[in-house]
Amino acid sequence: MKKTLLILTFAIFATGFIKATGDINLGDFEDGVTNIWMLYGETYEIVDNPLIAEPNTSTKALQNITINQYQGMSLHNLSYMADSFSMFSFDIYDATGAVDFIVNVHGKTSDGTDVTSSYYPTTIAGEWLHYEVDLTNAAEFETFDTITQLDLQNNTAVTELYWDNILLTSKYGEVISAIGVTTVKTNELLLSPNPASSSELIRFTGDIEDNCVVELYNIAGQLKLTTSLNNGFLNISSLNSGLYLVKVGNKVAKLVIR
Length: 258
Description:
Strand content: over 45%
């Protein structure tokens, strides 16, 4: 299920704001990496897929053994813009039979209030289950400004859960690996100078029209500036020092203001 966007990289941090230009691969475990998931169960490790069959024909999966209710794993310190994604999905298998499990999607509203949507599905005995959370469901996610944490946990006592193909689906449709990386790749958008002071004009290089809309977001995901270019230059005199993401259409780049 891996794909890669192939043009320009810009640095983003696991705790930083991400306005998606592509799907976020949170774990297909083919590369042996689990480091972004926090364990709060008994053990977890990457193992051979115990049942290579639809919907999961991958060769590897993440085995998570639990002995108490609410154990599992969690992904903390996220700052994904909720309106960039349409779905949170994954595959799950339980070797012991059909058991209940819990999916929590935590986030914050625009004023910083904590919000959570929780789900309580059941696995299918002897089969992989593909499970999807519809992030466009207004009844559940209309108040979400950002997604800050994802939980996958059991709702019984002793389980042997297998997780795989964990994905946040973007409204833009490509796949970015979020496991152990410090860069993602986007469509070409070059800025100079970068870093820059707020008194400098920023030159854009690339296929950018002069009257196009330019949006700048801070690392909290807040829109700080909407403007247009003037003869290919961007005026940032109204912005404070910090890290910003610059978005022009489906093109994105990082800008550091000193």
